[in-house]
Write a structure and sequence with these properties.
Layout (H helix, E strand, L loop, with lengths): L14 H9 L6 H17 L1 H4 L1 H13 L6 H24 L1
Helix pairs in contact: 1-2, 2-5
């Protein structure tokens, strides 16, 4: 694959398929999908002031609608994103 093809997947519409790949322990691309999900979420949180809060709200709503995965990369991703969202919430609350 070409360099930066992961950037094509930086959208919430691709989360279901990426989460499916992440959840499949036999998938040879599960770790790669995990990295894409983590990087996208990190960028949404870090760049929310540039991109606007709409992306951050969509991410938060998506996560809140999910059942926590049991194990593997999916569970790690879920925990990671929740800690990112907690960080941003804490940042907003402390600046108010």
């Amino acid at each position: 694959m070409e360099q930066d093809e992961d950037l094509l997947l930086y959208d919430l519409q691709y989360f279901p398929v990426l989460l499916e790949l992440v959840s499949d322990e036999k998938c040879p691309k599960s770790e790669y999908a995990f990295v894409i999900l983590c990087q996208f979420c990190r960028e949404v949180v870090v760049l929310h002031k540039i991109r606007g809060l709409k992306s951050l709200e969509k991410l938060s709503n998506f996560i809140n609608s999910m059942k926590k995965p049991d194990s593997g990369y999916a569970s790690s991703w879920f925990s990671y994103v929740n800690s990112l969202l907690a960080y941003i919430e804490q940042t907003y609350n402390s600046s108010s």
